[in-house]
Design goal:
globular; alpha+beta; nucleotide-binding (chains A, B); ATP binding (chains A, B); 545 residues; 18 helices; Rossmann fold; 3 domains; Translation Initiation Factor IF3; eleven-stranded mixed β-sheet; five-stranded mixed β-sheet; homodimer; proline--tRNA ligase (chains A, B); BirA Bifunctional Protein, domain 2
Chain lengths: 545, 545
C-alpha cells in the first residue's frame, strides 16, 4: 500500500531475480534467421559475403546478437532478455539496482522532453529538493509513515561520524516539500504554488525487476498547493489527463484512467487517480498516478495561508508522478519475439539506414547516397541513424535494430543507387508486407513517404494494443464469472459497491485487485456482482505488476 | 584534495553558515529607492498611486522586497541576501543541504540545455548509474579512497535491517562506472565508450555555502574509456575546451583554463584540467574540471580490452564535471548592490514587461499593447515574461526584476500606447544612460532593437568581467611580490618550478594555492620566482572558494 506508483508485488520472484546472469551473459550465437531470410537477396548476399574489409573473426556474427527467449514461452525471461539484447539496462552491483544504458535512457529522455513541456504549459516550475529527509518528518503523517517505513534506506553515518538523527533517502518528497511550503506560503497571494522535480528516489524493495521495480528509480514528482479543495481536485484530474494523453499519443499505450479504491489509495492521499495499462502477458501495470492529498500533509506540517477574508486556512494539495517504470511498460506493451518495438513518437532512432555493398568499388557510390538520404531526413526533423560499421554485416544489423525496435529500416545498395531508390522495412510488419521497394530518393517523395509510414506505425501500434486490451477485458456480473476471467489471465470489469473486506477477499482468493473505477462508465442501473446491492460504478479487477 | 570540483575550503565559516536565518527571514521593508527614483515620472506616479484595485495592505511594498547588504560592505552577506531576495535557493532542513527554487533551477536548466547539446555533438550518450556504491569499491583505488573517505554519507540500514555491507551515497562515480565498464568492454571495437550522466552527488562537507559547497549538489559527470593515452588526453582537453567556451559565450565568465599542480590534482587522476573564475571579491572559483585518469581506475577494476593485435590492455580514461556550483559563480561574477545580473544567453527571463496604468479606463488599452508586444517577442524567440499582477506596484516590480537580474525591462503605459512606443531599461546600466525612450512597437523595429540590446549586454558583461579580472592579476617575480599581491586580495602570476613542499608553504603562509598553470603562457625564458631555477611555465596563485 506504500507506493505512489506501485502496488505490493503479487508476482512470484521474477525470472530476472531468479536468473541474474541472464542480463549479463554474452551471447555468441549468430542472429536468428527469421528477419534475415525475410530480407531481399541483395542483403542476404552481403550478409554472407566477404567484401567488407573487416577482420574475419567478426564476419557473419558477433557478440551482441540477441538470442531471446520467445515471448510466448516465458514472458518474464523474454522481458529480461530483450532488456539485455537491446542494451536498455544492466544490473548494478547493489542488489535490486539498475544501470540505465544509453538506449534505455534515451527513451526516458523522450518521455521527459514531452512531459516537461506539458508541465510548464500547465503552469508548473521545475525545482529541486534535497534527497535527505530527517526521519522525524516521515513520522508526521500517520498513514504515510505506515505505508513507507518498511521500505526506507537510512543514512546513519556522515563524514565519519554517527548522526544524531538518522536521515531517510527520499522514497517520495511530500514531507520535505510541505516543510518548505510552510516557509514559503503565507497568503492567498502565494497560491497556487505548482512545482515539479525530476529526481531519483529509493525504496527498499525485496522483489525487483528492471524498470518495473528497482531499489532506486528515476521519476518526476509534481507537488501543488491550492486555496480550495475544488482547485486541488481540478489539478489532480488535469495531471492524470496529461498522463493519459501522453500514454495514448506518444507511447501508444491505451491506458485506462480511473480512480483507485480506498484500499489502493496512496498512503496520505484522499483520492488517487491512476492510469492502468495492460501488458503483453495481460497483467496490469500502474503506469502513473495523481493524488488529491486534501489537507493531510498541510495539517501535519502546519502549511497555512491567510485567505482574502484574513482567515487562516490549511492549503489543499496534490502530488503526481511518472517514473522509469513507464519504460518497462513500453517494452511489455509492444515487444515481440524479435525484440523491442518502439512507437515512432518516442523512438530515439526513428529510421536506421543500413548501407549494403559487396565490392570495394561499390562503396563510395553507396555511401554518398546514404549520406545524402541521411541529411534529407535529418533536415526534415526525422531522428535518423546510419550504421556504416564495417565490423558488422548487414544481416547482423538488421537483427540488431529489430531488437532495438527501430520503427523503420532503410536499405541502400548499388542497385538502389542506380535506380535512385531505397528499400523501406517496417519493424511492426514482418516480411514482404512490411516492405516498400523502390521508393524514390527524391527528397520531396522520400520525406513524405517516411513521415507517412511513421504516422501509420504509431497509429497501428495503438490500434493493436487497443484490440488486445479490449479482447482481454470481460464484463462480469457474478463473483464466479470474475474468478473465471481472472483464471484465464484476463481483466474482469463489473459493478462493485462491496466492502473493503470483500475487496481483500477477492485479492486473497484470486490474486486480482481493483485496478480502478474507470472514468468511463456504462450508463444505467447496476447491481454489485458480489453483494447484489445497487452499485454506482463498475470496477476493473486484474492481476498486476 | 578530495573533490572533482572543489579544493578544501580556505574560507572562514561563511556568513551563510554563521547566520542561517538570513536566507529565511522575511523582509518587510519597502524596496530600496535607488532604481525607482531612477525611473521616469510615469512609473513613479504609478508606484505611489492608488489606481490598481489591490488590497490596500499590499500597496507600495510587500514581503518579498530585497533589503540586501551592499556588496562592498560584506560580500558573503550580500551573496546570501541576493540568493534569498531573488528566490534562487533556500536552506533545506538537514544541515548543509539546499533547496533550489524555480528561478535558481531555471538557470541550472539553461546550463544543462547548452551543455547537453555540446556533449551529444562531441559523441557522448547520457545514461544513469545507481547512486549506492558498495563501500569496498571506494577502497580499490588508493588515492581515491584517501581523498573521499572523510566526506562520505553511508547507508547502513535498508528495509528495516542492518546491511551486511554499508553503501556509499555516491560522491562521484568513477568506481561504479569502472565496475560496469569492465562488463561492457571486451574489444577495441567497444571503444571509445563515451558517456555522461546528470545526477545528484553527496559529500559530507563541514563548511557549506549555497550553490558553492553543499552536502548534496547536482552536476553532470562525463566518463570515457579509450584505447590509447593520446585519445584520452585529447578527450580531456576537448571537454575543458567545451567548458571554457560555455563560460565565455554563455555565462560571460572569462575563466582561465589550465592544468592543476600535482598537489591540486583530483584524487585518482594523472592530470586535472580546470577553468578558474575570478569572483567579485577576487577569490578564485574552480568552475569545472576535466581529468585524464590514465589507467588508474582501469587497473584497480580490471577494465581491459583486446586490441587489434589481440593484445590485452587496460583502457585509458577521463572524467569531467560541472555542477550547480556554477550558478554561484554567475551570481558572484556579475551581481551588484541591486542584486543578480544575468547574462542574456542564460537568463530564464530575458525581457520583463511591466504594464503601467493609473485609471481603470487606461487598463484595457495598455494590456492590449502589452499582450501584442509579448507575442511579438515570443515569436522572435525571446524569453519574455509579463508581470500584470495587480497586487504589486510597478515600482515594486522594477526592484524585484532588477534583483532577479533580468537583462531588459520594458515599460508600457498609456502615453506609450498613444505613441505606439515602449521604454526599454537595461539592467546593467543604471539610470538614464541605460534607457531607450520611445522605441517603436512596430515588430520589425522592436525585435531588432531588443535583440541588439541583448547581444550588447552579453558582450558588455563579459568585457566588464575581463577588465576586472585583468586589473586584479599581478605578474610577480619574487615571493615577496606574491605575498604583497595576495595580501591585496589579488591573483599573482609568476614562473614556477618549485617543489610540492614549496607550494604547500605558500598556502600555509598566504592562504593562496596554485589555481592552475594557464594554457596561455608568456614566451621566453623564465626563472622560478621562488627558487630562481629555470621554469617552463607561469602559475597563477590565489585564494579560492
Amino acid at each position: 500500500m506504500a507506493s505512489l506508483l506501485r502496488l505490493p508485488s503479487l508476482l512470484k520472484p521474477s525470472a530476472a531475480v531468479a536468473r541474474p546472469s541472464a542480463l549479463l551473459r554474452r551471447r555468441c550465437r549468430a542472429g536468428t534467421a527469421a528477419s534475415v531470410s525475410a530480407s531481399r537477396s541483395q542483403a542476404a548476399a552481403a550478409t554472407t559475403g566477404a567484401a567488407a574489409p573487416a577482420p574475419p573473426e567478426t564476419r557473419g556474427g558477433g557478440d551482441r546478437e540477441g538470442q531471446v527467449t520467445p515471448r510466448s514461452v516465458d514472458f518474464n525471461a523474454w522481458y529480461t532478455d530483450v532488456i539485455a539484447a537491446a542494451e536498455l539496462a544492466d544490473y548494478g552491483p547493489v542488489r535490486g539496482t539498475m544501470v540505465i544504458r544509453p538506449y534505455g535512457y534515451a527513451i526516458w529522455e523522450a518521455i521527459q522532453d514531452y512531459l516537461n513541456v506539458k508541465f510548464k504549459e500547465t503552469g508548473h516550475s521545475n525545482m529541486y529538493f534535497p534527497q535527505f529527509i530527517p526521519y522525524s518528518f516521515i513520522e508526521k503523517e500517520a498513514s504515510h509513515v505506515e505505508g513507507f517505513s518498511p521500505e526506507l534506506a537510512l543514512v546513519t553515518i556522515g563524514g565519519g561520524k554517527e548522526l544524531e538523527e538518522k536521515l531517510v533517502v527520499r522514497p517520495t518528497s511530500e514531507t520535505i516539500v510541505n516543510h518548505m511550503f510552510t516557509k514559503w506560503i503565507q497568503s492567498y497571494r502565494d497560491l497556487p504554488l505548482m512545482i515539479n522535480q525530476w529526481a531519483n528516489v529509493t525504496r527498499w524493495e525485496m522483489r525487483t525487476k528492471p524498470f518495473i521495480r528497482t531499489l532506486e528509480f528515476l521519476w518526476q514528482e509534481g507537488h501543488t498547493a491550492h486555496a480550495t479543495l475544488e482547485e486541488a481536485e481540478k489539478e489532480a484530474m488535469q495531471m492524470i489527463d496529461v498522463y493519459t494523453k501522453f500514454a495514448y499519443e506518444q507511447a501508444a499505450i491505451p491506458v485506462i484512467p480511473g480512480r483507485k479504491s480506498r484500499v489502493e489509495t496512496f498512503a496520505g492521499a484522499n483520492r488517487t487517480y491512476t492510469i492502468e495499462a495492460m501488458m503483453g502477458d495481460r497483467k496490469a501495470l500502474q503506469a502513473g498516478t495523481s493524488h488529491n492529498l486534501g489537507q493531510n500533509f498541510s495539517r501535519a506540517f502546519g502549511t497555512q495561508f491567510m485567505d482574502e477574508n484574513s482567515q487562516i486556512e490549511h492549503v489543499w494539495q496534490t502530488s503526481w508522478a511518472i517514473s522509469t517504470r513507464f519504460v518497462g511498460g513500453i517494452i511489455m506493451t509492444h515487444g515481440d519475439d524479435a525484440g523491442l518495438m518502439l512507437p515512432p513518437n518516442i523512438a530515439p532512432i526513428q529510421v536506421v539506414i543500413v548501407p549494403i555493398w559487396k565490392k570495394g568499388d561499390e562503396k563510395s557510390a553507396v555511401m554518398e547516397a546514404v549520406s545524402s538520404v541521411q541529411n534529407t531526413l535529418k533536415e526534415a526533423g526525422i531522428r535518423v541513424k546510419v550504421d556504416d560499421s564495417e565490423l558488422r554485416t548487414p544481416g547482423w544489423k538488421f537483427n540488431f535494430y529489430e531488437m532495438k525496435g527501430v520503427p523503420i529500416r532503410l536499405e541502400i545498395g548499388p542497385r538502389d543507387v542506380t535506380n535512385k531508390s531505397v528499400v523501406i522495412s517496417r519493424r511492426d510488419i514482418p516480411g514482404k508486407q512490411g516492405k516498400d521497394f523502390g521508393v524514390s530518393m527524391d527528397p520531396s517523395i522520400l520525406v513524405d513517404h517516411i513521415k507517412g509510414r511513421l504516422v501509420e506505425i504509431q497509429a497501428s501500434l495503438l490500434q493493436k494494443a487497443i484490440a488486445f486490451r479490449d479482447s482481454n477485458i470481460v464484463d462480469v456480473s457474478s463473483y464466479g464469472e470474475l474468478k473465471e476471467a481472472i483464471a484465464e489471465g484476463k481483466w474482469a470489469r463489473g459493478p462493485w459497491s462491496a466492502s473493503d473486506a470483500d475487496e481483500l477477499k477477492v485479492k486473497e482468493e484470486t490474486s486480482a485487485t481493483i485496478r480502478c473505477f474507470p472514468f468511463e462508465q456504462p450508463e444505467g442501473a447496476k447491481k454489485c456482482f458480489m453483494t447484489g446491492n445497487p452499485a454506482e460504478e463498475v470496477a476493473i479487477f486484474a492481476k498486476s505488476y
